[in-house]
TrEMBL record:
This is Uncharacterized protein. It comes from the Bacteria.
Length: 224
């Protein structure tokens, strides 16, 4: 191996590499090592960009609103939903990346599209909804977090390129009922909407549960 300084990566190259890795890890948290990996990539990226103070403030804000507990964001999600959900956990870090212009969107919504979803998503959650029905209603998302398998749980995020316009998340679940043995295929022909999530004073207040989501949360004994 050579140590020739002329052959070392530039700061710009390191930034682009970390940016790509962060965005891949947000989309597929299970394949990249979960929350710890997301924290490490964000920590490294803020160091390269000389923005460590911003990162520390983001972490403090997570704790203050209950989005991170002694077991991290993963634990806060578990409290809120009654079960672990890596796609929901990763969506919290996607928010941070978006606020800091580090999230690379697959589709950027026009402001009018984004405003429409913000106005109507709570009413959409008043009834049970499916993944296909939600896509038909709101269109292709800005980001998909979770497996590409259409049967698996996942989170859809909708946003614009403007960091001051918050992402709107829709969290979907599929599987077996609590206490039942895991089976394949899962119980439902496609994922069901558990909740929408958009900014709130407390983490739990950010969730707007569908009837399915509220029932599942009760079954699982969510504590928040």
């Amino acid at each position: 191996m050579t140590s020739d300084p002329k052959l070392r990566r530039t700061v710009t190259e390191v930034h682009h590499y970390l940016l790509g890795q962060l965005n891949s890890a947000i989309r597929r948290p299970g394949a990249f090592g979960g929350e710890q990996t997301l924290r490490l990539y964000l920590d490294a990226l803020t160091f390269v960009d000389n923005r460590e103070q911003d990162w520390h403030q983001e972490l403090a804000a997570l704790r203050d609103r209950g989005a991170s507990v002694s077991t991290g964001v993963t634990g806060a999600v578990h409290h809120a939903l009654g079960a672990k959900a890596e796609d929901v956990m990763a969506s919290v870090f996607a928010e941070i990346a978006h606020r800091n212009a580090w999230l690379l969107l697959d589709r950027s919504l026009q402001r009018a599209e984004h405003d429409h979803i913000r106005r109507t998503v709570d009413a959409w959650c008043s009834r049970n909804q499916t993944l296909s029905g939600t896509l038909a209603e709101f269109g292709p998302p800005s980001i998909v977090i979770g497996s590409n398998n259409p049967l698996y749980p996942k989170t859809l995020g909708y946003g614009t390129t403007h960091p001051d316009q918050p992402l709107i998340f829709l969290h979907f679940w599929n599987g077996t009922e609590p206490g039942a043995a895991s089976t394949w295929p899962p119980d439902h022909p496609e994922p069901l909407l558990l909740a929408a999530r958009h900014p709130g004073d407390r983490f739990i207040d950010e969730f707007v549960f569908t009837p399915t989501g509220a029932h599942r949360r009760q079954q699982l004994g969510a504590t928040t």
